[in-house]
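Ligand-bound model needed. manganese (II) ion.
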Amino acid sequence: MSKHIAILGSTGSIGTQTLEVVEANPEEFIVDVLTANNNVELLIKQAKKFKPDVVVIACEERYEELTEALKEEPIKVYTGIDAIAQVVQMSSIDVVVTAMVGYSGLLPTIKAIEAKKNIALANKETLVVAGEIIQKLALENGVSIYPVDSEHSAIFQCLSGEFDNSIEKIYLTASGGPFRGKDKKFLETVTSKQALKHPNWDMGAKITIDSASMMNKGFEAIEAKWLFDLKPAQVDVIVHPQSIVHSLVQFEDGSMKAQMGLPDMKLPIQFALTYPKRFKTDFPRFNFLDYPNLSFEPADYESFKNLNLAFQAMEKGGNMPCIINAANEIMVEAFLKDQVGFLQMSDIIEGCMDQLGFISKPSYEDYVITDTETRKLALSML
Ligand code: MN
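Prediction:
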């Protein structure tokens, strides 16, 4: 029986790779829904090729172009972010791949879980902002959340067959990004162009900047806390420049398991969709002799202050991770437009963490308000 999937953010890096996985396994998957933010050209191509029942373009100015291009197709076309939150509830859908960028992933993910859809989670910001709400809802609705993020997929794979065996600790591996080993003096003057050159992974702009600043790894720590029900002290980060070991789990007997492979997001995407099965692929295989020296080094929490701030936010809990996420989204946007320096991003994020009101047990509405207020404050600090 084929699995019916909805892909939110189908024109982004994860979205397009998800469609490659679908294309390689035409018997297994049927695409019911595709949504995009504003890349209407690619969305049209994808819609014609994969014939979903529904497509949504978030950006309303692109709606006419989309309807015009698809008028001969038996495809329903909608626009706006509310439409995305609605279409994920369609009865035919089995699993929703959340591959949009940032905070915008939160509401559709909540709606999908409430409609009892399993989630292949690529939008880590959803768990960073509101992990507590998401996990509670998933439990109440009997929904599984399968990680797409490569580190979390690695941990998920290591936990396979471990049943009730407790995790002592996890190690999230980090490539260190393009500025590994650099000090603050160097980082002061780096540009967005330099930051966009990731050594190992080909990803979207937002996550590539987050990788360069190490905020991505900080967010992944928070994501792991919620996915695997861990205490902050059980989450550690180790820099591993080759990106071959995708993360490790240490069990209570001291044994460690790692998941390895060449860096290719299609593998974790596919596993999130086929779990517990592994489908045959023709991806290039890892060869030990090409990598005789796998190396590991400590993370630099001082030069990459974002990592420190994210761990502080994880410890503090409440709406603090929501604050750090919203401030970071504003900073990354500004950095991409050369409106803020690389190190300044952390300073403004820290300023937001200090100044915004702390809420220890936020409701969904509290998160919405925190997100809006943080964005305002962060913009004012530019
Ligand atoms: Mn990752």
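The chain has two domains: 3-147, 152-316.
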